[in-house]
Design brief:
The chain has 81 residues and is mainly α. The chain has helices spanning 10-18, 39-46, 50-65, 68-72; strands spanning 22-25, 32-35. It has one domain (2-60). Strand 1 (22-25) and strand 2 (32-35) form a beta hairpin. The protein is globular.
């Protein structure tokens, strides 16, 4: 699946995966919440922390799509003999 992905589409895909996520960014007032529903916000939060972004994407995928495989098994066609 990822081998067919156009590199120019990756930033939009990251935003789509993280769009329901918000983070608390520390500041002088104790922190401010930033929604990751825009590319600019993703850049602000994860600039210099690429590994942390990958971890957040992995967690979001796991939480939101973990049951897709087991949930689709009964609807999958049986083996052809």
């Amino acid at each position: 699946m990822f081998s067919a992905l156009n590199p120019d589409d990756v930033p939009d895909l990251v935003v789509k995966i993280l769009e329901g996520t918000a983070v608390l960014v520390p500041d002088d007032a104790g922190g401010r919440q930033i929604s990751l529903n825009k590319r600019e916000n993703v850049d602000v939060v994860f600039t210099g922390s690429l590994m942390m972004m990958f971890k957040a994407i992995g967690f979001a995928l796991q939480v939101n799509y973990r049951d897709f495989r087991s949930g689709s098994a009964p609807a999958a066609p049986g083996r052809v003999a």
